[in-house]
Amino acid sequence: MTLETMTIEQFENGVHVATINNPPANTLNLGIQNDLIKIIDRVKHDPSIRVLVFKSAHPKIFIAGADLGQMSNVEGPIDYAEGAKQLQDVFNALEQLPIPTIAAINGHALGGGCEFALACDFRIMGSGTIGLTEASLGLLPAAGGTQRLPRLIGSAKARELMFFSKRLNAAEAQAIGLVTKAVEPAVLDEEVYKFANTLAQGAIKAIGLIKESILAVDSTLEAGLKVEREAFAKTFLTGEPEEGMKAFFEKRAPNFSQQLTT
Question: Are residues 154 and 144 in contact, defined by beta-carbon separation less than 8 angstroms?
Fold first, then answer.
């Protein structure tokens, strides 16, 4: 797999770390989008990838958001709605991955950078600021931000953040549930890896089916319950319940990671 703006490394227990490196500011351009599509496709076909972490090579920026210069210098008619849909589709595919995903935020994650992080399951933040600041430019979040942020922190607080284009530090973001955990910048990598490694030793296939069920929560209750019971039935095809229940009766910790490549 050839990547233009990212590198990906494998660690123990199937933890994989994708490092975003798109100078000068990790702008959310087509290069990052195309690489993300490639990584998503690889995850779908590679069972050795149990947890996926995204981090940045830039010391102060996670992802800077859209390329404003490119947006302002385009000549001729532009289908902005179609352009937004393309990025929405990429982030939807990221959100729907059947494994846990973590955004390791080591710097500013504003606008599209925040929307990228919102499409991940967890956000662990060490430094910088995070927020959907598009209204300060006369724009609005169009890569899922107006939908995911209210679902995560509630409509009232999401309106406040978006209407006022607020930028939150790590502690402020943790206080309202925007990030999972705020940590000291010096220990961000260590904390993220511990978190990812714990997840990777869990029942990853069951976790993927939990994600599938959670994503149905905005449908009707009847439809959501149907997704849940069908997902429950699928767990018995993964081999994980066999190990989990065997470990329970043997009074030991289950070894789900033994299915690393199955």
Answer: no
Close Cβ partners of 247 (under 8 Å, ≥ 6 residues apart): 253, 254, 255
Q: Give catalytic residues, as residue numbers.
A: 115, 134
List pLDDT tens digits, range 130-141: 999 999 999 999
SS3 20: strand
pLDDT per position as a tens digit, 204-234: 999 999 999 999 998 999 999 999 999 999 9
Do 203 and 178 contact (CB within 8 A), yes or no? no
C-alpha to C-alpha distance for 50 and 12, rounded to whole angstroms: 10
- How many angstroms separate the Cα of 94 from the Cα of each of 100, 142, 210, 247? 10, 16, 15, 32
Give the C-alpha separation, 66 to 77, whole Å: 19
Taking Cα atoms as reference points, which of 126, 237, 144 lies closest to residue 189? 126
